[in-house]
Specification:
8-stranded mixed beta sheet; alpha/beta; Spore Coat Polysaccharide Biosynthesis Protein SpsA, Chain A
């Protein structure tokens, strides 16, 4: 039996992309147990997309929001993980279109004491605009405007060939796509979730992975499965990148497995969720 699953979708002020991302969840062969939207301070347009989607969703949708005080992805992901009811977290961004077997692939690939990296396929600017305009979520390796096509094949029989050996040596061990990854909630809590000392873009996901590895969790690569198509957007500002990279290097150098400022502030000692610490929760 697959584990109970929470799909966490992070978003910030791009309701058009979030809308098609959410539509792709309805196309899943196997639905997650719930959707938790980690909203880093979006406006009313995003709330309306979520409220409208909730009306037709066959599974619960929770909107976790906090005030926009700048790029605080680590904070909002921690709040979403704390609010999640599933044992297993599948994490994407709100600019991702999920292949119909996306959730079922991740659940089939899940193993105890491990976390998962998966790939993404890029959709160019013109094709991304067309997807948003038409809400056509039926994207494949044959679709116009896609690249990184080796990642667009789905071949479950070949998963074992890549699971523990592909891109898993040296510095590549820390490489991850925060827009397509999966982990056990209890493992995230063990390492205290994402490090909220990160401010601004990147690489908070790599630092999270470094602590999972330091805690003895195995990294597994879901290659040729868990297909995720990434809508084009301009790169985020990297104003604080050098400082953030130093945090990653420090975690690796010190073999740290638990950050100081993390998810624990949102979870009470008795295991109950501290809703007041989660920001606004739109149920």
């Amino acid at each position: 039996m697959p584990p109970s699953c929470s799909l966490i979708i992070s978003t910030y002020n791009w309701p058009e992309a979030l809308s098609v991302c959410l539509e792709s969840t309805l196309n899943q062969r196997e639905l997650p147990g719930e959707i938790v939207i980690a909203d880093d301070g979006s406006g009313e347009a995003t709330k309306k997309v979520i409220d409208d989607f909730r009306q037709k969703s066959p599974i619960p949708v929770t909107h976790i929001w906090h005030e926009d005080l700048g790029f605080r992805l680590a904070h909002i992901r921690n709040k979403a993980i704390a609010a999640a009811k599933g044992d297993y977290i599948v994490q994407v961004d709100g600019d991702i279109l999920m292949h119909p077997y996306f959730i079922s692939d991740h659940l089939r690939f899940a193993r105890a004491n491990s976390f998962v990296r998966a790939s993404r396929i890029y959709i160019d600017e013109a094709s991304s605009k067309e997807v948003i305009r038409t809400h056509n979520i039926n994207i494949s390796l044959f679709s116009k405007g896609t690249s990184n096509l080796f990642s667009a094949f789905r071949v479950p029989l070949l998963w074992p060939l890549f699971a523990t050996s592909y891109k898993n040596k040296g510095d590549e061990r820390y490489e991850i796509h925060g827009c397509n990854m999966a982990f056990w909630k209890k493992d995230a809590i063990e390492v205290n979730g994402y490090n909220e000392d990160f401010s601004g873009w990147g690489p908070e996901d790599k630092e999270f992975v470094a602590r999972l590895l330091n805690a003895g969790k195995e990294k597994r690569f879901l290659k040729l499965g868990g297909l995720a198509f990434h809508l084009y957007h301009k790169e985020n500002s990297k104003y604080n990148l050098s400082t953030n990279e130093q945090l990653l290097k420090q975690t690796i150098h010190t073999n740290c497995s638990c950050c100081v400022s993390g998810i624990d502030k949102y979870i009470q000692l008795n295991g109950e969720k501290n809703i007041r610490g989660l920001g606004n929760s739109h149920l």
